[in-house]
Write a structure and sequence with these properties.
The chain has helices at residues 12-23, 44-50, 62-74, 88-101, 113-125, 148-158, 225-237; strands spanning 2-7, 27-33, 55-58, 78-81, 105-107, 131-138, 181-182, 188-193, 199-207, 210-217, 241-243. The protein is α/β, with parallel strands linked by helices and 250 residues long.
C-alpha cells in the first residue's frame, strides 16, 4: 500500500485528490495537509513527524510549491506536483535535486489524458504550420498566468521551429498586452480568467487558406484523477525525474 499525503487537501482540487487516493486499492491517504481545516496537518514538517509518507501530492499555490518540493526531496519524500507557476530555472533545480537525492519527482502541468493528447497533437501539427497562437481559459481564482499547460504546449511546439510568426507585419499595441505574452518560438499565449470556466485550452494554427484549431475542455476535476494516480504509482516505483505526464503514458 502506497502511503500518500496531499498538500492543499482542503482546496477544490485537493478534496477531489483525497477522494481519489482513498478510493484506490493501491493507495492509502496517510495525511491531509492544509492551513485550513481542523482535520489537517498545517505543514509538511508536522505531518512527517507523525506519519510515514511515501509520496506527497502537491496542489497548493505558486508561492509555496518550490519550497515544499525542496523540503520533500531533501527529506526522502517522493513528489507528484500539480501546482503550476514554477519557472524553468526552478524546474531545473528540482531536477538536479531529485537526481542527487535519488528521490522520484514528477511534475505535470496537466494530469488530464485529454490535455496531454492535445499537447501531443499540437507538437505534431507544429511541423506543418508556420503560424500559431494559444488561448487558455480558466476560472477567475487561478493565480498564475499563463497556465502551466499552455507553457508546456508552447515548449513542445517550439521543438519544431524557431518562430511561429512567419510573415507577420510589425505590430504596435495601442493597449499594452493586447497581443498576449510571447513565449517559446514567438508563440503568443492569451490568458482568459472568467467565472464559469474551469480549464480549457485552444491551439490555433494558420497557413495560407486554412486554419486548424485544437481544443480541450475540462469541466470536471475528476478528469485529472487517473493521471494523478498513474503519477503516484510511477514515482513510488521509480526514482527518476519526470516533467510531463506524457512521459509515462503508454
Amino acid at each position: 500500500m502506497i502511503k500518500v499525503a496531499v498538500c492543499g487537501a482542503n482546496g477544490k482540487m485537493g478534496k477531489v485528490v483525497c477522494n481519489a487516493v482513498e478510493s484506490c486499492a493501491e493507495t492509502e491517504l496517510c495525511a491531509r495537509i492544509d492551513l485550513i481545516g481542523d482535520d489537517t496537518f498545517k505543514t509538511i514538517e508536522e505531518a512527517k513527524k507523525s506519519v510515514s509518507i511515501d509520496v506527497l501530492i502537491d496542489f497548493t499555490q505558486p508561492k509555496s510549491i518550490f519550497e515544499n518540493a525542496k523540503y520533500c526531496l531533501n527529506n526522502g519524500i517522493k513528489m507528484v506536483i500539480g501546482t503550476t507557476g514554477l519557472s524553468d530555472e526552478q524546474i531545473d533545480e528540482l531536477k538536479q535535486l531529485s537526481k542527487s537525492k535519488n528521490t522520484g519527482c514528477l511534475i505535470a502541468p496537466n494530469f488530464s489524458t485529454g490535455a496531454v493528447l492535445l499537447m501531443k497533437f499540437a507538437q505534431m501539427a507544429a511541423k506543418y504550420f508556420d503560424n500559431a497562437e494559444i488561448i487558455e481559459l480558466h476560472h477567475n481564482q487561478k493565480k498564475d498566468a499563463p497556465s502551466g499547460t499552455a507553457i508546456k504546449t508552447a515548449l513542445l511546439m517550439s521543438e519544431a521551429k524557431k518562430t511561429f510568426k512567419k510573415d507577420n507585419c510589425p505590430e504596435t499595441e495601442t493597449i499594452k498586452g493586447s497581443r498576449g505574452g510571447t513565449s517559446y518560438s514567438d508563440i503568443q499565449i492569451h490568458s482568459v480568467r472568467m467565472p464559469g470556466y474551469s480549464a480549457s485550452e485552444e491551439v490555433i494554427f494558420g497557413s495560407e487558406g486554412q486554419i486548424l484549431t485544437l481544443r480541450h475542455d475540462a469541466p470536471d476535476r475528476k478528469c485529472y484523477m487517473n493521471g494523478v494516480l498513474l503519477a503516484v504509482k510511477h514515482v513510488y516505483k521509480e526514482n527518476d525525474f519526470v516533467y510531463g505526464l506524457e512521459k509515462i503514458m503508454d
